[in-house]
């Protein structure tokens, strides 16, 4: 991939981890930070891989769905644990709807705190 563009957004939500022994089995909240990257090799006639504005709008839609929710009661996290890994995979899959012929989702990184993040990378 020659070009890689990233946008960053955040949301606030509560969760608890099922099947987990420790403080995170209790309900608690995070200010999640998301970095979504699209990659490709070909620019359009305006010199863009994909418009940042479109990318932000797609990410915003996902953030709005997750914002101020109890994730354990919000699909798909009512069925799968709302870990940083699963949240990153969910956002990665949702962002595929925004792919164009030349710009594909390359990476989604989910920060649970200033020091911990999970990244999904396209294979
Ligand atoms: N691989 C993963 N490990 C953990 C996840 C996760 O999503 N993936 N999540 C948690 C908990 O959600 C928890 O909130 C975070 O725990 P932790 O970093 O231990 O706690 P703090 O945010 O309080 O950080 P401190 O460094 O202890 O202050 C746990 N593990
Ligand atoms: Zn947590």
TrEMBL record:
Name of the gene: ptpS
PANTHER family assigned: 6-CARBOXY-5,6,7,8-TETRAHYDROPTERIN SYNTHASE (PTHR12589:SF8), PYRUVOYL TETRAHYDROBIOPTERIN SYNTHASE (PTHR12589)
EC numbers for this chain: 4.-.-.-
Residues annotated as binding Zn(2+): 15, 28, 30
Any Pfam family: PTPS
Protein name from the UniProt record: 6-carboxy-5,6,7,8-tetrahydropterin synthase
SUPFAM superfamilies: Tetrahydrobiopterin biosynthesis enzymes-like (SSF55620)
Keyword Chaperone: no
Cofactors (names): Zn(2+)
Keywords of this entry: Lyase, Metal-binding, Queuosine biosynthesis, Zinc
Keyword Cytoplasm: no
Any one GO biological process: tRNA queuosine(34) biosynthetic process
Cofactor note: Binds 1 zinc ion per subunit.
GO molecular function: 6-carboxytetrahydropterin synthase activity; metal ion binding
Naturally occurring in which organism (per UniProt): Endomicrobium proavitum
Top-level taxon of origin: Bacteria
Top EC class for this record: lyase
Pathway linked to the protein: Purine metabolism; 7-cyano-7-deazaguanine biosynthesis
Family statement: Belongs to the PTPS family. QueD subfamily.
């Amino acid at each position: 991939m020659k070009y890689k563009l990233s946008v960053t957004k955040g949301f606030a939500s509560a969760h608890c981890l099922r099947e987990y022994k420790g403080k995170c089995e209790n309900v608690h909240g995070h200010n999640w930070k998301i970095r979504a990257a699209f990659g490709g090799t070909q620019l359009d006639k305006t010199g863009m891989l994909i418009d940042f504005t479109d990318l932000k709008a797609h990410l915003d839609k996902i953030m709005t769905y997750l914002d101020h929710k109890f994730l354990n009661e919000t699909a798909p996290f009512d069925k799968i644990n709302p870990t940083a890994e699963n949240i990153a995979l969910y956002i990665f899959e949702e962002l595929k709807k925004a792919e164009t012929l030349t710009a594909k989702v390359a990476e989604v990184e989910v920060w649970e705190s200033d020091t911990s993040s999970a990244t999904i990378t396209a294979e």
